[in-house]
Design goal:
Helix content: 25-40%
Strand content: 5-15%
CATH architecture: Alpha-Beta Barrel
Number of strands: 10
Structural class: alpha/beta
CATH superfamily: Glycoside hydrolase/deacetylase
Number of helices: 11
Shape: globular
Number of domains: 1
Order of helices and strands: HEHEHEEEHHEHEHEHEHHEH
Distance between the termini: 31 Å
């Protein structure tokens, strides 16, 4: 996915034309306590640069307390319309009566294996209502997010959901994680920074060769802006995808990871730089989504 533009997004952020710039964002912060502990350690002791908070999840209150005590940690909001398994009792923040199209037959959020049903049924005004509730909950806690992204829904899963999210981000002065075409092209046409290179989701990597794969990706990282969505977690079997999370956690906090970054001269950044660029686009919301 090479950028079609002569100026890389990394250059829009002030880096040189040969700079290799990487966001290492820990998704799923707030899912469970075992995830929270690993995310904080992956940032404070490891190579991760930021995280994304899931507000409807059972570990969210603890995660927000952790962020309140660690204001140096940049974080976004991992907008959550999907729960991982039937055992997860994640409900919308808005009342069920206001967002019926987002709920399955049990009154819960749809599970990840039923995303197609969610996207077929979801009414965009109800989506916007729930996303706003999640953003408001974070702001009401006195926290200052940098960006919005989605749990299990690449670029929101639907164009109108993406547009509603971009409008919400513009309203609150936030950036948005964008990594699929054509949304990436649309944002670049507005002069906004998005990833220049292929996006890495750690759930798509083989568990048994994870460390070697990460090492290769660092050695081969191209110039421009790249992003990894990693999912560190401590090894607890009740946490969905715990094997993926354990292997992420082990690599992110390893001496090997830090040594590779240093030897390769890779610049690790976070969404604060993108937020400044996105917040400066005063025309973004004028003709976007209403």
């Amino acid at each position: 996915m090479p950028t079609p533009y002569s100026v890389l997004s990394s250059e829009l952020l002030g880096f040189g034309p040969e700079a290799r710039v990487l966001i290492i964002n820990c998704d799923d912060f707030g899912m469970y306590g075992a995830v929270n502990a690993a995310v904080v350690e992956s940032i404070e002791r490891g190579i991760a640069s930021s995280c994304s908070l899931m507000v409807p999840c059972p570990g969210a209150a603890e995660a927000m307390r952790l962020l309140g005590r660690r204001q140096e940690i940049p974080f976004g909001i991992h907008l959550t319309l999907v729960r991982d398994t039937v055992n997860d009792r994640w409900r919308p923040l808005t009342t069920r009566e206001r967002v019926p199209s987002l709920l399955d037959g049990t009154g819960e959020l749809f599970t990840s294996d039923r995303i197609s049903e969610l996207l077929a049924n979801a009414q965009v005004d109800e989506v916007a209502c729930e996303l706003r509730a999640q953003v408001t909950a974070v702001l009401d806690a006195g926290l200052a997010p940098t960006h919005l992204d989605w749990h299990c829904l690449a670029d929101g899963g639907r164009e109108d959901i993406f547009d509603a999210t971009v409008a919400l981000a513009h309203e609150y002065g936030l950036a948005v994680r964008v990594w699929l075409d054509p949304a990436r092209r649309r944002m670049r046409q507005r002069g906004l920074p998005v990833v220049d290179n292929p996006f890495v989701d750690s759930f798509r990597l083989d568990i048994d060769t994870k460390a070697a794969t990460y090492a290769r990706l660092l050695r081969d990282l191209p110039v421009g802006l790249s992003e990894w969505a990693v999912h560190p977690g401590q090894a607890q079997a009740h946490v969905p995808g715990w094997q993926v999370r354990r292997t992420d956690y082990e690599f992110l906090t390893s001496p090997q990871a830090r040594d590779l970054l240093d030897r390769e001269g890779i610049v690790v950044t976070d969404y604060r730089a993108l937020q400044r660029a996105w917040a400066g686009d005063v025309d973004l919301g004028s003709d976007w989504y209403t």
